[in-house]
Amino acid sequence: MRVAQQLLPPRVRITGTDGDRDETPAEYLRRVEGAVVDRSTIVQLLCRTDDGFHAAVLKVILDGFDFTNYPIDLAMRKFLYFVQLPKETQQIDRVVDAFAKRYHYCNPGIYVSVDDAYIVAFSLLMLNTDAFNKSNKHKMQKADYVRNTQVGGVANEILEVFFDNITYTPFVHTQDHCATGDQTPPTLRQRRSFVSRSLKETIDPYSLILLDYDLNELRLSSPADFTPEDPYSYVGTSRQFDVEVLRDAFLNGTVLRIMPPRRIQPAPLAAIPNAIAMPLPVSMPPPRERHQEPKKLRLAKFGLLTPVDARRKKRPRQWGVLLTLTHLYFFKNVTWFRGLMEQLQNTDAYVFSPPIQGFHPDEIMETSSILALHDASYRFPSSFPLSPANTDAQLRTVLTVVSKTGSRDIFQASSEDEMNDWVAKLNYAAALSSSCAYLRVGPTAERQSLLRDKIGVLEENLVHDMQRVEEDLRTLRHLGVLVRLVRTENSDADERKAIIKWRERVLNRWIDVEWERCAREVLVKELDAETGLQT
299 pLDDT exceeds 70? Predict the structure, then answer.
């Protein structure tokens, strides 16, 4: 501390038109640079004390570095090339803390906090020391480094790349570099024998730093491509639900009566060869045929949907679809379904008559386990017949039905309005049936209490799901700025595989969020409608 006080000049008071004032950290740094050898030495002197003003001056020095879209390992190489670390642990800690703050400021979407950036930065320093310490006979292995450096939002795939990049070549300071008399940056000749010999291609990190190389040329995609926003909408392309219209559709929809299958009457005993007629007991009356009431389905919507999922080879060209509050029925026999649609459309009766025979849906979905979405990022498969002049309009007619098991079915409606109607009614039914908040003719205190409880649970789940989305987005952004210095034949394939994996994971997280948002909005509006009816 005494050495630092002797080498660093004290702060001064400046007299001007505005009166006396203290030097700013920037003014102090400019004055000190004329009295001390270089900034590298200044950093070592500034970190010897925990004085707040010296920390502010150190921040000014760090502000001169732009680490935007730099991976943290390459950012640290850039920093330590121009700034030499002190020897004492406490002083190193102050420098690394200042570095972590600057890196987090330049890349706010990668680490949750400055503390996480500090932990990773310090782990890179320790790994560099372990890897290139000649007296260390037991080098840290990749699995050990990954296990010891578990930080939220930093996936194992990223830590593995950090390990390869750091153990490839040591940190180098500009004075050490110039002292060797070699004007070229350190290259593959500096690798140690414990580094894998199976490498096919390597990249010199200090050439990237000194030449200010565009790092995007070394990546599969630009970092801007790794921040996917939520492409899904549970209201389709419209703005919101109209709960009154939806409630009326499900409460006052046409009732479809379905006759049960006819029972086959047993053949009389006289027609059966060698049958023995057994007399009935006197107290037992002869069997009578039971009268069966037709099954009733209250339809909220019916229509035709065209499947466009290219992954399913055996699919009909069109589905006939019926929607009730609890189920979604699919029919392959479009000819029969068109006839049924024509009858339903031409009747104004509350109960459709006469009852239909042969109600045999090919597939059934429970509305409590599905969600309908409009995916703004969806593109038709190449095999799907399209009109090139009308592609954008056709994309606005596509809806995706997602189940809680993870399966997805993609359909095209006849128009954008029809798609929005399907999405709204499907999600209204899904929210009510999954919450067991079934429709009633009049408001009840029991249903209102149930709605409030479900809304509270959904709000808690929504907060949790948003946190998981943000965690996975940070990992995806981290992959976006990553640069592999050590490359093998499979590097591009591994990088692409990791990107696809985490993009799919983020999109699945967004679906979970849409599920909670949709159910919450429906139940909140349903509760408001209930209380409005009661008052």
Answer: yes
